[in-house]
Amino acid sequence: MSGHSKWATTKYRKGAQDKARAKLFAKLIRQLEVAAREGGTDMEVNATLRTMYEKARDASVPLDTIERAIKRGSGELEGVNYEVVTYEGYAADGVAVVVECMTSNRNRTAADVRNIFSRNGGSIASPGSVLWQFDRKGILRVDGKVPEEDLLSVAVDAGAEDISNQQDHWLITCSAKELPACKAALEAAGIKVIAAELDMLATTEVKVDQEVEARKVLRVLDALDDHEDVQNVYSNFDIPDEILEKITSEDS
Predict the structure, then answer these.
(1) 160 and 43 within one domain
(2) Over 60: is that where the pLDDT of 141 sits?
(3) Are the C-beta atoms of residues 35 and 73 closer than 8 Å to each other?
């Protein structure tokens, strides 16, 4: 399991993976606006917008709110002009971190991200020095009760690159462009997809097997994720489960 996935699991156990409802909605609305602005409003053509639309619906964002966000992105309605900015940096032990933001003020966000890194024992990095350690992939999560043979027969034909058992669910990896087709194929076969999203997977991992260093890594990731302009945080740490569980139990 990648560092990002382990971090997500930890935050889920602490009850903090899903932000307060208003904050989660705000992030999804920004994603819709940017996707509509960059790729148009036709979801048959704009796969990113279609993915964001489904993600917003799964999160119970009201349909009229989604439609207004898309119209603002396309220019039909007046709104704030957000831009996508990616920052790269390092946490403790040389752990690589990629931070994806949507902001209406690039200078403010850059200063905030830099300060978060420095205050929490990390450091900002120059563009390209970290990002090469990650690949953008499509990630789907399917109910773990689905028989493996049934899943394999559908997912492989639909373009899946990897399928792994994550105890309570199956994790399917595919190329970013194949995500919509893979999701559609699974659903057409009667297999319920719990979640489908674009993700950044680390191609190399950094083992962090000291509790003190692990806490430092998680601290900077949590602080970044709490910033209102931050949409996604990816990392390549590999923290042993027993350390994660100890930190989780103490912080919960």
Answers:
(1) no
(2) yes
(3) yes
